[in-house]
C-alpha cells in the first residue's frame, strides 16, 4: 500500500500514513458491511485511484456538508 501511495505522488511519510489509514478503514468497512476485507480494500483503492485521476466516484457527486445553524 505504501508503494502504491508513493507511485500516486505522496511523499514517503505521507504514503506510510495513507497506507495505515487505508488498512484501518478496510477493516472497518469489512466489519460494518459484513464483506471480505479484500472487497473493502478494493473499493477503497478504486476511490483513491479515481481521486488521483480527478474523477468523482459514483455517490460523491454533488454532496456537500450542510450544517443546520438552528
Order of helices and strands: HHH
Note the beta-strand portion: under 5%
Instruction: Enumerate how many helices there are, as a single number.
Output: 3
Note the main sheet.
none
Tell me the radius of gyration. Answer: 14 Å
Name the overall outline.
Answer: flat
Uncertain stretches:
none
Mean of all residue-level pLDDT scores? 86
Count the E strands. 0
Alpha-beta classification: mainly alpha
Task: Assign a percent range to the helix content.
Answer: 55-70%
Distance between the ends: 43 Å
Describe the structure.
This protein has helices at residues 2-7, 12-33, 37-52. The chain is an all-alpha fold. Helix 2 (12-33) crosses helix 3 (37-52). The longest helix is centred in the N-terminal third of the chain and has 22 residues, at 12-33. The mean pLDDT is 86.
Short structural summary:
The chain has 70 residues and is mainly α.
Quickly list its features.
0% strand; mainly alpha; flat
Strand and helix layout:
Elements: H1 2-7, H2 12-33, H3 37-52
Amino acid at each position: 500500500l505504501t508503494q502504491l501511495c508513493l507511485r500516486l505522488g505522496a511523499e514517503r511519510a505521507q504514503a506510510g500514513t495513507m497506507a495505515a489509514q487505508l488498512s484501518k478503514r478496510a477493516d472497518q468497512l469489512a466489519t460494518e458491511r459484513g464483506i471480505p476485507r479484500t472487497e473493502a480494500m478494493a473499493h477503497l483503492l478504486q476511490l483513491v485511484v479515481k481521486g488521483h485521476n480527478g474523477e468523482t466516484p459514483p455517490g460523491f457527486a454533488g454532496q456537500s456538508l450542510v450544517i443546520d445553524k438552528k
